[in-house]
Amino acid sequence: MSDIRIETAGESHGPCGTALITGLPAGIVVDEQFINAELKRRQGGYGRGGRQRIESDHVVVTAGVRLGLTTGAPVVLQVPNADSRLDDLERTPPMHRPRPGHADLSGSLKYGTDDCRNILERASARETAVRTAAGALCRLMLRELGIETFGYLRGLLDIDAPIVVSGDLNALREQRDASEVYNPDAEATASMIEHIRQAKVDKDTIGGVCEVHVLGCPAGLGTCMERNHTLDSSLAGAVMSIQAFKGVEIGLGFGAPARCGSQVHDPIEHDGSRYTRPTNNAGGIEGGMTNGMPVVIRGAMKPISTLLRGLPSVDMRTLEAQQSTYERSDVCASPAASVVMEHVVASVVAAAVCSTFGGDTMDDIKAAMERHVG
Ligand code: EPS
């Protein structure tokens, strides 16, 4: 039984981000163009800062792939940083005034220093570039198995603009990608852009709610046997690991306790060939396992903690009250976070597929899935 694991390394202004992916089956077609297109999408979105004009993210595959196919060996992916300057003390000086909300203070206390630079470099959301690349490789695997993901920015501040994810997924993707905030709805897009523009004027920042749908999952991914391996706990843990994410919901999520059971649980029907549900309040997961309906998961991203006007803080050398340091940053990175979340979710689903149907090769997995579905 294979067990996909992804580890990353790299600093925001180091030479590159690196992902080590173990447990992938042999035979995944590694379409680098697809991975690069997703990296480009992650760089976009209204509200991004100056860094994205410097970077031109692309993947470099350095292990585990031969002649365009995974070999079953550990895969190493890298995303180079154009803005590499970690040891240049003039351009990357020590930082002593931690930003409330960032890892600066906790990390500096943990590692016994009053220079927040080491921790902020590693905590930076730049790391999500290589995590997206790893997730895109997992998506390539899922696609071959008929499993598709779709992520978008559902809302921010007072805007909640859910969309129905069904029908022609490619047409919906085109609509989403034409939006500067990655929401297919034109009216919602305009309102979100206006909020972000105003935050920029106010020297403030904005978070958002990202939603990801996974379509085509067979029933039974995940488990209820070992509680720490339920699919919902794995998904929640992975989504919460994305920088600045503070909340996760599956299906109705925090809305479920506001309703009685008869208004929550999705009736079970059978159409002669398969079980169906007229509703999907469970978000496709019951008992820690997929139930055959689309998996629907939301993540709440807090506003970026780097504010142009700073926030009340303390200089760690003198312990005097000071405004936090301003480091170049984004006003809103939630559109990009929706891309990251889509790929993080894809990695978890790919791992669940491998542990449920796993073998050494894609052919093994396909055969096991056919037996299961058929
Ligand atoms: C980030 C700070 C900014 C963002 C960065 C996340 O980087 P810089 O300090 O170089 O301007 O641009 O995000 C990315 C680089 C990226 O590719 O997403 C932070 O402090 O988390």
Which fold name corresponds to the CATH topology? Chorismate synthase, AroC fold
What's the gyration radius in Å?
A: 21 Å
Reading the helices and strands in chain order gives EEHHEEEEHHHEEHHEHEEEEEEEEHH
Helix content: 25-40%
CATH superfamily assignment? Chorismate synthase AroC
Largest sheet: 5 strands, antiparallel
Could you give the order of strands across the largest sheet? 8-7-9-15-10
As a percent range, the share of strand residues is 15-25%
Q: What would your notes on this structure say?
A:
A hairpin with a 4-residue loop joins strand 11 (269-270) and strand 12. The protein has helices at 32-43, 51-54, 104-110, 117-123, 128-144, 169-177, 186-201, 231-240, 334-357, 362-373, and strands spanning 5-9, 16-22, 60-63, 65-66, 69-70, 75-80, 148-156, 159-160, 208-215, 245-250, 269-270, 275-276, 285-286, 289-290, 295-301, 312-314, 321-323. The mean pLDDT is 96. The two termini are 21 Å apart. With 374 residues, the protein is an alpha+beta fold. The strands form 6 sheets. A 5-stranded antiparallel sheet has the order 8-7-9-15-10. Strands 1-2-6-3 form a 4-stranded antiparallel sheet, covered by helices on one side. Strands 4-5 form a two-stranded antiparallel sheet. The chain binds ligand EPS. Ligand EPS binds next to helix 5.
Please sum up the structure shown:
This protein is 32% helix and 19% strand.
